[in-house]
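User: Working on a comparison across species. This one is SDR family NAD(P)-dependent oxidoreductase from Ideonella azotifigens. Can you predict its structure so I can line it up against the others?
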Amino acid sequence: MNLQGVAALVTGGGSGLGAATARALAQQGARVAVLDINEAGAAKVAAEIGGLGLRCDITDTASVLAALAAAAEAHGPARVLMNVAGIGGAKRLIAKDGTPMPIEDFQRIINVNLVGTFNMIRLAAAAMVKLEPLQDGARGVIVNTASVAAYDGQIGQEAYAASKGGLVSLTLPLARDLAQFGVRVATIAPGLFLTPLLHELPAEVQQSLAASIPFPKRLGQPEEFAELALHIVRNGHLNGEVIRLDGALRMAPR
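Assistant: Here's the predicted structure for SDR family NAD(P)-dependent oxidoreductase from Ideonella azotifigens:
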């Protein structure tokens, strides 16, 4: 798909991987709506790229519908959806004092990363499938963000790994479901990337994390994630696939 003039949505676009993806889309001529629960972050990135910044809580259907309507009014219906929004969190199943993990902690991460992403897909896809097809019959592309934790979840990552594993498992059935409309679906499973969260860690901790990556022995750059996201959009035969982007990293138990 040629991105020139195409309307695109980026959730979690106010920082990190989402912001890099929004910038990359804009550089290719896309009309980008930056969606984030952090309205200030979304507005800042949007101002930088000449896009539209909108507050959007992906777990709240009313919030998503409002953002989709505002984006469509400004840019037209979206043919590209980049689902990058998500949260982390680690907590052992049984704490040192013997108490079990609060069920609310598990539900919160599942609700944002898995249910929220699905909520965004179902609502954006409902409009996408009604668009006029392009010359190759394509109507749109959806790219989701999982994690290598879906495969190599570490101790304390039960909720996070389950949420990202759900996105991995969703990819093929979504692609099959939407194939009849000419909408492709793919997922990126990034490893250790230099996001704002990792930026906050001490330099020695960052270096230790980077040393665990076989090659290249450095943390991934958000621009590398964005580059792969754009390639998925451009490559019309990429569909129903989950791509690890991790420098051959396989996470240890802890």
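For your comparison, note: Residues 7-243 form a domain with the Rossmann fold fold (CATH 3.40.50.720).

User: Helpful, thanks.
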